[in-house]
Amino acid sequence: MDESFSILGIDPGTRITGYGLIRVKGSLLEPLDFGCIRPPPTLPLPERYRIIFDALEQLLDRFQPKAVAVESQFVLKNAQSAIKLGMAKGMVILAAARRKIPVHEYPPKRAKSAVVGNGAASKAQVQRMIAALLRLPKLPEPEDAADALALAICHAHNMRTKQCLNTSKVR
Q: Among 38, 70, 84, 165, which has the minimal tally of Cβ within 10 Å of its Cβ?
């Protein structure tokens, strides 16, 4: 895997959508950009979804990632919250699909396990490990951006594992 490519991780939400972009070159991971999209909470939901969608399109056009890794929805106690979260995730899927970029979903526990080795890791543990893995001078903030970077790293590990399995089948 000598080719260099980027992966965009997204932690969707209607108040804060975290994003994290990494470059993968062999076994090296390099941070390219991370942060969050914060639509004004006073706006109606359709306007917040549009802001999320527009910001995602800008990120996809600017960085042209090979893949998008998004947090899969987990069932919340509040059905309305689950629907709103699903709509924010839909903006991610639509923006990527318009560019024919594959979208891969990972549960939060799998992303945490990929970076910390423990699916029940705290947000602070994820931030510290992301900083160490990507050689960042300080912790990635907000937590949503760290979660998004964890998703991108999780996908990079998943791709590497699949490549190793495919290579071993050829031999």
A: 165
